[in-house]
């Protein structure tokens, strides 16, 4: 996917996140994050935006910590989030495409394109959180974007040693989008999961459904649409896949 596509999505999702958070109010609970209120969601996402923008703006090649959350609330906090979101967009759009900076997912090419993709998905998931906190039906995720997000999650985040999705013996989980040409085979073991974009071999469990529902369910925002085979593997995902 082109960076411009991710940037357009990032712009829409960030605006929608801020609008939903403003409507929900800072005290509204965030259903998928039981310890969070909307103020925590805004503080977290704004700090992540600033952190991401800094790597690109400074061409920083090594990891560095995020800032502390700001002591802001209410309308002032929403305005601060909008400013963080706008600064991130401006940084990514103005950066030279060959800027090299730190990227933390295996196999990722460093640079503004990595952060445009990562922040688009970060913001989309948290936009869903803000709309869930507001109440009413959240805006659906676009199918192509959802497929890309499932791919990033399975072949990026859970390829890292930090993934806690492990099994004592080798197991195979399949993930299939029913409304797109997209299927993944996830091989589990005592090592980090190894995911390929194919349907090779037999799988002991398959989770399937529309890409947008899979995207949110694999990020533990929705129940898994459909499970066939050994449901314990799907349950294992729910229990151990939280990103830390």
Walkthrough of the structure:
This protein is α+β, with helices and mostly antiparallel strands. It has two domains: 132 residues, Four Helix Bundle (Hemerythrin (Met), subunit A), CATH 1.20.120; 81 residues, Nonspecific Lipid-transfer Protein, Chain A. Helices cover 48% and strands 11% of the residues. The chain contains seven helices and five strands, in the order αααααββββαβα. A five-stranded mixed sheet has the order 3-2-1-4-5. α1 runs parallel beside α4 and α2 runs antiparallel to α4.
Number of strands: 5
Outline type = globular
Mean pLDDT: 96
What structural class is derived from the secondary structure elements? alpha+beta
User: Could you tell me the radius of gyration in angstroms?
Assistant: 18 Å
Low-confidence spans = none
CATH class of the largest domain: Mainly Alpha
The biggest sheet amounts to: 5 strands, mixed
CATH topology of the largest domain: Four Helix Bundle (Hemerythrin (Met), subunit A)
Helical content, roughly? 40-55%
| Order of secondary-structure elements | HHHHHEEEEHEH
Domain count, please report it: 2
Which strands sit side by side, in order, in the main sheet?
3-2-1-4-5
Number of helices: 7
InterPro entries: DinB/YfiT-like, Maleyloyr_isom, MDMPI_C-term_domain, MDMPI_metal-binding
Organism: Streptomyces prasinosporus
Protein name: Maleylpyruvate isomerase family mycothiol-dependent enzyme
Keywords: Isomerase
List the helices and strands and how they pair.
Elements: H1 3-24, H2 38-57, H3 74-94, H4 112-134, H5 143-155, E1 171-177, E2 182-188, E3 194-196, E4 205-209, H6 211-218, E5 226-229, H7 231-240
Parallel strand pairs: 1-4
Antiparallel strand pairs: 1-2, 2-3, 4-5
